[in-house]
Amino acid sequence: MSQNLMIHWADLTAHKLIAQKGDREEYVLASGITPSGTVHFGNFREVITVDFVARALRARGKKVRFLFSWDDYDTFRKIPVNMPNQELLQKYLFQPIVDTPDPYEREESYARHHEVNFENQLKKMGITADFKYQASKYRAQEYKEWIRKTLIHTQDIKDILNAHRTEPLADSWLPLSIYCKECNRDKISKMTFDGKEKLTYKCELCGHHGEENIESSTRLKLPWRMDWPMRWAFEKVDFEPGGKDHSSQGGSYTTAKEIVKKVYDWDAPVYLQYDFVSIKGSGGKMSSSKGDLVTVDDVLKVYEPEMIRWIFASYKSNVDFSISFD
Q1: Would you state the pLDDT for residue 162?
Q2: In the prediction, which pLDDT does 1 show?
Q3: What's the CA gap between 96 and 86, in Å, rounded?
Q4: Contact assessment for residue 298 and residue 253, using Cβ atoms and an 8 Å cutoff
Q5: 294 near 43, Cβ under 8 Å?
Q6: What is the pLDDT of residues 157-182, one digit of tens each?
Q7: 180 CB contacts (<8 Å, ≥6 apart)?
Q8: In this structure, what is the dihedral angle of CA atoms 242, 244, 248, 253, given to the nearest 10 degrees?
Q9: What does R_g of the chain's alpha carbons equal in angstroms?
Q10: Residue 191: per-residue pLDDT
């Protein structure tokens, strides 16, 4: 390998990936975002980080599968202040994001509105990916055996999580969320598992007493700390970056790395921390829920796509920076 290939951090990461995962023909790279609000320019850093590494691998003659997951089966927990039709959205709190209507009345759902916008922005930036929509995969029961495996390993998962908690999880805790059959919300209490396939629960909001079967249910969802490592194993992911908020000691990457090995018998992907992007003069990181953000489209009104790529390429992934509009 010539020395000039080893200059940029993406080339160093590609070299590390090949060294740790073995020299083979194809590698799986992953990224993902929850469409809980407008996908902003800070979120874009994760995607372009993966794209840089993908290009570095391809320069070495490797095939790459870039998987981009839309976590649209996550719960709609907070209404961003910049969204219209706030009263309408209020009615869908704690339901799946994919079941929440588009407040702009353009797309089939709230989730799809944000997905379409960001996918179009990625096209403008010359980034292509294999988009995965997690609501469809959960509802198609693609993960049912992985959910069963997760529940069977409840005690192992509790031990891993409790090692990084100041207060241990309750004895009755289970590593699963259920959307109530009556009100479609995930505010569940008194969940039990029979050790095979049957789950019972009570909804805190509507009081419904329900029963779900792993073999047939479309209402089961693994919480983030289990969902992330489960998909590493399911998709055989070799590389995925994560934000600074996931990278602290005892954070979600620490526990995911332990869970994926213990529960799902898979080695964690090569990991790269990326830091926040802010707008010069605004202070702090961008937030979808607060609405103080700019999108890739906003930045494209000022900068050419090649210049945006150059800006991101100029900083190591774990260094924060601000983009200027002055």
Answers
A1: 97
A2: 47
A3: 17
A4: no
A5: no
A6: 999 999 999 999 999 999 999 999 99
A7: 186, 187, 188, 201, 203, 205, 206, 208, 210, 219
A8: -10
A9: 21
A10: 97
* CB count in 10 Å sphere of residue 178: 21
Angle (nearest 5°) at CA 187 between 182 and 193: 85
How many Cα atoms within 13 Å fall on the side-chain side of residue 30?
A: 24
Question: In this structure, is the dihedral angle defined by the CA atoms of residues 107, 112, 113 and 116, taken in order, positive or negative?
Answer: negative
Within 13 Å and on the Cβ side, how many CA atoms surround 97? 28
Phi, psi dihedrals of residue 86, rounded to the nearest 5°: -60, -35
Sheet containing 239-243, strands listed edge to edge, beginning at the edge strand earlier in sequence: 130-133, 63-70, 26-33, 239-243, 270-274
Return the pLDDT at 5.
Answer: 46
**Beta bridge pairs of residue 210:** 201
* CA pair distance 9, 56, nearest whole angstrom: 10
Hey, what are 226's tokens? 């289990």
Give me the pLDDT at residue 248, please: 77
H or E element: which one contains 131?
A: strand 130-133
d(CA 18, CA 14): 6
- The partner residues of 202 in beta bridges, in order of sequence, read 189, 209
Helices and strands of the chain, counted as H and E runs: 12, 12
Q: Tell me the CA end-to-end span of the chain in Å, nearest whole number.
A: 42
Low-confidence ranges of the chain (pLDDT < 50): 1-2, 5
CA angle 92, 98, 102 (to 5 degrees): 70
The residues near 213 (Cβ < 8 Å, ≥ 6 apart) are: 197, 198, 199
The C-alpha angle 39, 45, 49, rounded to 5 degrees, equals 135
Burial classification of residue 4, based on how many CB atoms lie within 10 Å of its CB (0-12 exposed, 13-18 middle, 19 or more buried):
exposed
Residue 151's CB is within 10 A of a number of other CB atoms, namely 22
Nearest to 50 by CA among 297, 236, 243, 307: 243
> What is the C-alpha to C-alpha distance for residues 265 and 117, in angstroms, rounded to an integer?
37
Q: Output phi, psi for 288, to 5 deg.
A: -65, -40
Look at residue 282 in the predicted model and tell me its pLDDT: 72
* Cα within 13 Å of Cα(87), Cβ side: 0
